[in-house]
Amino acid sequence: MRKDPVRLKLNELLDANARFDLMARGTTNHCPMALVALAEMGASPARLQEFFDRWEREYALSAPPVDAIVSRHEWSRQLGNAAAFGALRVCFLDWIAEAGSVPVIAAVLKEVPFAPATQAFHALIRLAYGIKAAHSGEIASGLAALISSHLHIDARFDENRTAENVEAGFDHVVCAMGNGAVPGNSITSRLRAVASDVRFRHAILAPPPAVTLLDDLARATISAYWRSPDFTVLHTVTATHAARILLAQLPDTSAKQLLPGLWIALCTAYATVGRPANVETDSSDVTVSWSDVRRMAVASNDDHVIKMAYTCLCEDRHHPSPLYLASAARLVFRTTKT
C-alpha cells in the first residue's frame, strides 16, 4: 500500500524537531504543533518542509544534550524542573514504546495534578497534537512539557457555589479581580499572578453541573473570542479543543476527573484578561468558505493563526457554529493584510 506523502513528511519533520529545545527565541517551540495543524488542513509536503526550515532558521534553539537519566518510577520527582525536559522526554518515549501511548498518558495524568495552563496552555496543545498525529515523540514531548514546566493552579471551589453557566463562571472571577486586565509581560506571568491572588481564590465557582461541560466551554470561548479577539482568549479556544482530543483518549471516569482542572485554568485565563471592550464585529454571516480559510491559513507563517484556524475548523465540524468560520476568516484576512 502506498503511504501518504504528507504523513511521511510530517513524521519526518516531527522526528527532526527532537533536535530543538522546548523553548525558542522569544517563545516556546510551536513548530511541531503548527506542522500537525498544517498537515491536517491539507498542506503539501513541500509546504511542511518550508515551514520547518523557516522555523529552524528564525526561531529554533538547539536542544541541550541529555546527560541525566530519569527512571520510569521517579519521573514525578522532576515536577516543575524545567531542566529535566529532555530526560523526561526520553523516559516517556521509552515507556510509550513498551506500553503504548494511552496507558502512559493515563498513568502520568493520574500521578500528578492536571495542569492545562502549563506553558500558557501550549504543553496541553502539544500533547494533543502529538496524539492527533499518532507520533510517539510528540506525545512524549507534550507529557515532558507538562511535567517539567508544571503550572498547577492550586485553587479550590465550593461544590455548593455553582456557576449558572460557563459565561457566568468566567464573569464572576473577572468581576472579583476588579474587571481590569492583570499586568504582566507574558500569559504565564499573568496566570501566576491571578492564581496567587486571594480575590480569585475566593471567587472561583464550581463548574456548571452539565454533562456537556466541554462543549459548553468550547461555545463560550469562541463566543468570547468573536466579541473580542484577545490573544489570551485565543489560547482558551485552542486549549479547549486540545482538551477534547486528550480526554477522548481516556476512560469517561478519568476524563471527568480532569475537567475541573481545565475549568480552573480557563477561569484563571479569563481573570487575567478582565472584560475587554467588544470590538467592532461584522456579521458572522461571512461570504468566504472553509476552503478559502484553509488555503490562507496553510500559506501563513504565523503559528497561532495556523493553530486557531485548524481549531475552528475541527470544532465547527464537531458542533457547527457560524462563529468558527467567521472568527477564522477574520483572523486570516487581518494577518494577511498586515
From TrEMBL:
Keywords: Oxidoreductase. It comes from the Bacteria. Pfam families: Questin_oxidase. PANTHER family: PROTEIN, PUTATIVE (AFU_ORTHOLOGUE AFUA_5G03330)-RELATED (PTHR35870:SF1). This is DUF4243 domain-containing protein.
